Amino acid sequence: MAVMPVGDVAKVTSVGAEEIERIAVDVGEKLTAKEELPALDVTGKVHGVLPKIKSLGKYSKDELEILLKELKQSVQRRIEEASRLGRDRAHGQRIGAEQDLIKAIEKRLKK
Fold it and tell me: Is the pLDDT at 6 greater than 70, yes or no?
């Protein structure tokens, strides 16, 4: 915890209640905002940052069902490409990450 110099206390106390509320709302929105879910593109694969398993609770059942369907298609497409083009470490890691997310979504949807 940082120690505030005495001169800075006056600066903090001079901030109005409206400003404090605005800052709190901004921070709250950032903490609760859900990331946009990745989606299939024209290549038939899901690209972009995958949501963290811990954050799946932020999404609706419908959103998760759509993502699940698209991830399954993406994994199938990636496996087909790997068979055709040969193994690649980064692609294998992405397939694994998508498969892990599929398992987590299926588990969450069973609840």
Answer: no
